[in-house]
Amino acid sequence: MKQDYKIKDIGLADLGRKKITISEKEMPGLMSLRKQYASEKPLKGFRLTGSLHMTKETAILIETLKDLGADVRWASCNIFSTQDEAAAAIAATGTPVYAWKGETLEEYWDCTLQALTFDNNLGPNLLVDDGGDATLLIHKGYELENYFNEHQSYPDITTTNSEEIVIENLIRKVHQLNANHWHNIVPDIIGVSEETTTGVARLIQMEQDNKLLFAAFNVNDSATKSKFDNLYGCRESLVDGIKRATEVMMAGKTVVVCGYGDVGKGCAQSMRSYGCKVVVTEIDPICALQAAMEGYEVKTLESVLNKGHLFVTTTGNKDIITLEHIRGMRDQAIVCNIGHFDNEIQVDALNDSDATREQIKPQYDKYTFPDGKEIFLLAEGRLVNLGCATGHASFVMSTSFANQVLAQIFLADRKPEIGLYDLPKELDEEVARLHLNHLDAELTILTDNQAQYIGVNKNGPFKKDEYRY
Ligand code: NAD
Ligand code: ADE
């Protein structure tokens, strides 16, 4: 039988299984959804592709989706984020997985294509995406076929971005094998559930441009995702990445956190808890004022370049730390990013600059400038918590992934029209409820009178949709 996986080492499967077994008890949301839907199997008969960091937590998500009946194929959504033992454990169960730590960009996009390609060249019915790369590849391939049908030729590749060139080359290769590949698979796609802020931003753009080819669920904006994973997850996994890479003492250092959204808030709080002096940069006056009233200094990056010992980007925006910024930093400053993509720091410009790069170990590089100044870059500018450590801990991923599973059940059951959807608040509250017991948290029950007085149903929802938590 054809080996339908590509991973680092299948010999790591036992280690992966041991870690998965421990984490299952820390993921009560996923485990209770397994129990709840075990007999109904709402995903039975659906082909499902995942493009999401291939960690042990994701392994438990995959096995939940399989338990619910889905036929699953998986790739990671970042070249550095795979835990090879988790990928091995999944491959050993016969689930096709294409992911290993340290992929090249060409390998990464090939893995995404493999995850999207089921037997007989069929595509998925359902997608779980984190950052939108699976969705992007489908849309780019579809657009290329449209262009070719109109012009009988390919458009010139005008981008100079190396990753975009890889994608353009890949979709041309697919086109040469089958000129209708993406048009054949798109009609079977019911929808995608998107995990992260940056992926949702891409979906909003596509919807505004009328380019969406299928329905999309915004999992990120469930309160039990963005107000937990982005905040409490990063509060612990940021420092895990920094310390595993550098082993540096945090206390007393000046840390500059760029961006004070959900991720930035978690990062700033974490750094303060280690005794760091935290400086925040923001473009949004509301977030800037929040940071100031939490007691952080709020400054422009330019004004604190030579003060910071450590710089963390958390914005989901690009060109936050430029080469010129890096030139202005002090000797031995550490630079890292925890946002989804690596364009927050100008890594290409740094690599092309007069600084000499020396790898201390994978995902930990020292750049020495001609004047002798040294700058450390973590995970080549990719998300430091998953590149240099193992990402968020299992418990918080259970809240995120319970939302993913509920969104998938919703898509499979309701087959909604093309559009961008949020999960209903009842389900958001249900996800939270599934996690209370594990922390010995007791919920107070409203009396009938109290419920009437504040104008809510006794069993929820307890807040209006606009409530911000
Ligand atoms: P968010 O929108 O809540 O916060 C981003 C903040 O950055 C906003 O407040 C925005 O005003 C600010 N910002 C934008 N441009 C800026 C600039 N030039 N300078 C300073 N601030 C600027 O988003 P979020 O939910 O906090 O997510 C941030 C990023 O982290 C996204 O890319 C998201 O996908 C990613 N993410 C990563 C992880 C992880 O585990 N690594 C987890 C969750 C989210
Ligand atoms: N995102 C952040 N941490 C993660 C983890 N442990 N698994 C999957 N996705 C993640």
What do these coordinates show?
With 469 residues, the protein is α/β, with parallel strands linked by helices. The strands form 2 sheets. It has an 8-stranded mixed β-sheet, covered by helices on one side. The chain has 20 helices and 15 strands. The protein has helices at residues 13-24, 28-37, 56-67, 84-92, 105-116, 133-151, 162-177, 181-185, 197-208, 223-226, 229-246, 262-273, 285-293, 301-304, 323-327, 347-351, 384-387, 394-414, 425-436, 448-454, and strands at 47-51, 71-75, 97-98, 126-129, 191-194, 215-218, 254-258, 277-281, 297-298, 310-313, 333-337, 356-361, 364-368, 374-378, 420-422. It has 2 domains: 10-130 and 132-194, Adenosylhomocysteinase-like (Rossmann fold), CATH 3.40.50; 234-387, NAD(P)-binding Rossmann-like Domain (Rossmann fold), CATH 3.40.50.720. A hairpin with a 2-residue loop joins strand 12 (356-361) and strand 13. The protein is 44% helix and 14% strand. The chain binds nicotinamide-adenine-dinucleotide and adenine. Residues 53, 55, 57-58, 233, 386, 391-392, 397 line the site of adenine.
Output the number of helix runs.
20
Helix content: 40-55%
Structural class: alpha/beta
* CATH topology heading of the largest domain: Rossmann fold
Bulk shape:
globular
Query: Spans of 5+ residues with little confidence (pLDDT < 50)?
Result: none
What's the Cα radius of gyration? Answer: 23 Å
Kindly report the name of the CATH homologous superfamily of the largest domain.
Adenosylhomocysteinase-like
> Beta-sheet strand percentage?
5-15%
The CATH architecture category of the largest domain equals 3-Layer(aba) Sandwich
Give the bound compounds.
nicotinamide-adenine-dinucleotide, adenine
Residue-averaged pLDDT, rounded?
98
Give the CATH level 1 class of the largest domain.
Alpha Beta
Widest β-sheet, arrangement of strands: 9-8-7-10-11-14-13-12
Taking the alpha carbons of the first and last residues, their distance comes to: 52 Å
Let me know the largest β-sheet.
8 strands, mixed
Count the strands? Answer: 15
Query: How many structural domains in the coordinates?
Result: 2
